[in-house]
Amino acid sequence: MKTKIAVANGDGIGPEIMSAVLNIFEASNVQLEYEFVEMGKSYFDAGHSTGMTDKAKATIEELGLLFKGPMETPKGKGVKSINVTARKVWNTYANQRDFRSLNGVDTVFSKAGIPINITIVRENIEDTYGGIEHLLTYDVAVGRRIITRPGSAQVIRYAFEMARRKGYKKLACAHKANIMKLTDGMFLEVFQEIAKEYPDIESSDIIVDDLCMKLVSKPQMFEAIVLTNLQGDIVSDLCAGLVGGLGFAPSANIGDNISIFEAVHGTAPDIAGYGIANPTALLLSGISMLRFLGFSSKAAEIENALLYTLEQGIHTGDFGDKSIPSQTTKGFADAIIGNLGKSPAKSPVIASEDTEVKSRVSQLLKNKLTVTEGIKEEMVGVDIFVEAGNLQPNELAELAKKQLKYNDNFDLVMISNRGTQVWPTGSIFTELVNEYRVRFEKKAGKDITQRELLHIAADFSQDAKICSVEFLMKFGGKIGYTLAQGQ
Ligand code: NAI
User: Fold this and answer.
1) Residue 137 contacts by C-beta under 8 Å, 6 or more apart in sequence?
2) How many CB atoms within 10 Å of residue 256?
3) Which of 55, 95, 170, 337 pairs as cysteine with 27 (C-beta 3.0–4.6 A)?
4) Single residue among 243, 263, 287 that ends a domain in this structure
5) Looking at ligand 1, which atom is closest to the CA of residue 13?
6) Is the pLDDT confidence value at 353 over 80?
7) Nearest alpha carbon to residue 91 among 64, 125, 127
């Protein structure tokens, strides 16, 4: 019996490369059945705010697997990217991108004889991709960076399992925990906890800027790297550049219930309709989808034919030896079809046995909710973000102290501006913007309520505009907030 999956052709070059890939699947007699779903730009234009019809949503949720072409998000209409929405709504928490040197695709590293084989696993839901941003004053914009323990654990566990499945020896966690101590710090802490369960895999961590330097100088150092969303996004495009560009970068968005396979590149509007796009990235995504579903021997057959074709110097216009005429999308796909059953001479032949073909269908009745239980928490104060006109820090401190006249439970401990302490101590050289953070902490031995903290903010609003309020918490005795620079 065939396995049914949802397919969205996408926009721009999407239909051209999708048709090329599905033709290759058909020629290889892959046992898949496709249900084409309505998603993409024309569905935004037709008034579907999510860029897909209700039927498309229902089909994807029922089948659990979407193979998609690139999609255009209309610019300037206030709509969110359909690609990002799909990943978030369906909780495809791990974005896996495999980058490796391909014979026939010249890069500075291939010319230097340095092979690259790196898998990036990027967290796909959280971080700044929540898109939760506010203008607090006309001059000050803030964005929330959300990193959670369950979200980090999901993607990190996936990365370790993937490393084990692929027979990798090592997995690195890249981060910026030296600066973002609570967000990246949490991601790193979860990585180190989960690493203990995988003693067969050498785990290490690396600061993301150091990683970038090492990736462009010694990419052979790395096998697999797990990162938070934004850093992973940037690093994975860097890796695409190492192996020849976006035309060779496949992407799998993996979730527990729904997974999405697509190319990393976009709709390439500049070449859409000419039939010259390179289908390799979508084909590589399709090959990893076949493996994911359990069709490993078909995946190997198609991958070997692709590698053989590339070794023959056959190419589309965006890469390869310019002295050999380039193929159209169809011509390139037909060459791969003609080479099914052949094996590459210069690259290792992909060998594989069929694994169990998985059913992706799961029926959920409610949203999954994960909470870490049993951690003692204590509220110890509040950061009140205020717009304070042209006030200098000491003037603002006097206003803030007024709020304590009726409440002896708190101290005013610090005022900062753009994260740098400016009161009680600071430097006259620190430049200010018109949004301050004013921190009140409870005095030792006092019990306080959230209501009291809100009262301070409410009273303060009579003297300054309150932009936002964050409570200061301790979890398991450890402070859950950062100190200001210079505090
Ligand atoms: P793009 O990836 O579409 O194009 C960048 C450059 O790479 C262009 O010169 C293009 O011709 C070339 N290129 C890309 N894929 C190619 C292929 N398969 N063969 C040959 N050349 C290829 O990026 P751009 O121009 O920034 O975005 C265009 C549209 O795609 C935007 O609407 C964007 O939102 C959307 N997009 C969608 C993605 C998705 O569906 N996952 C991902 C990235 C962008």
Assistant:
1) 387, 433, 434, 435, 467
2) 16
3) 337
4) 243
5) 18
6) no
7) 125
Please, what's the b/e burial string for 59-97 (b: 16 or more CB within 10 A of its CB; e: otherwise)? Answer: bbbebbbbbbbbbbbeeeeeeeebbebbbbebbbbbbbb
In this prediction the pTM is 0.91
Q: How far apart are CA 464 and CA 443, in angstroms?
A: 24
Rg (Cα) of the chain, in Å, rounded?
26
Residues with CB under 6 A from ligand 1: 13, 17, 70-73, 83, 246-247, 262, 265-271, 277-278, 281, 318
Query: Looking at ligand 1, which atom is closest to the CA of residue 282?
Result: 18
What contacts 95, CB < 8 A, 6 or more positions away? 87, 120, 121, 122, 123, 124, 232, 236, 251, 252, 253, 254
Distance from Cα 432 to the centre of ligand 1, integer Å: 40
Same-domain status, 390 and 345: no
**356 pLDDT higher than 70:** no
CA distance between the termini of the chain: 66
Among protein residues, the one with the nearest Cα to ligand 1's atom 7 is: 268
What are the two backbone dihedrals, phi and then psi, of residue 415, each rounded to the nearest 5 degrees?
-125, 135
Q: How confident is the model at residue 18 (pLDDT cuts 50, 70, 90)?
A: very high
> What is the C-alpha separation between 475 and 94, in angstroms, rounded?
28
Same domain, 339 and 382: no
Whether the CB-CB separation of 118 and 165 falls below 8 Å is answered with: no
Of 75, 87, 265, the one to substitute when testing ligand 1's pocket (max ligand atoms within 8 A of C-beta) is 265
Domain count of the fold of the chain = 3
Tell the burial category of 462 from Cβ atoms under 10 Å away from its Cβ (0-12, 13-18, 19+): exposed
Answer positive or negative: Cα dihedral of 393, 398, 399, 403: positive
Q: How many angstroms separate the CA atoms of 139 and 278, rounded? A: 44
Residue 265 CA to its chain's centroid (Å): 15
Residue listed under structure tokens 């090329």 = 20
**Is residue 434 a part of any domain in this protein?**
yes
Question: How large is the average pLDDT for residues 215-219?
Answer: 95
* pLDDT (tens digit per residue) in 163-184: 999 899 999 999 999 999 999 9
Task: Report if residue 99 sits inside a domain.
Answer: no
Determine contact, residues 66/40, Cβ cutoff 8 Å: no
In terms of residue numbers, what domain contains 300?
1-93+254-373
Whether the CB-CB separation of 164 and 200 falls below 8 Å is answered with: yes
Sheet strand arrangement including 465-475:
420-423, 410-417, 436-442, 377-387, 465-475, 478-479
Q: Report if residue 486 sits inside a domain.
A: no
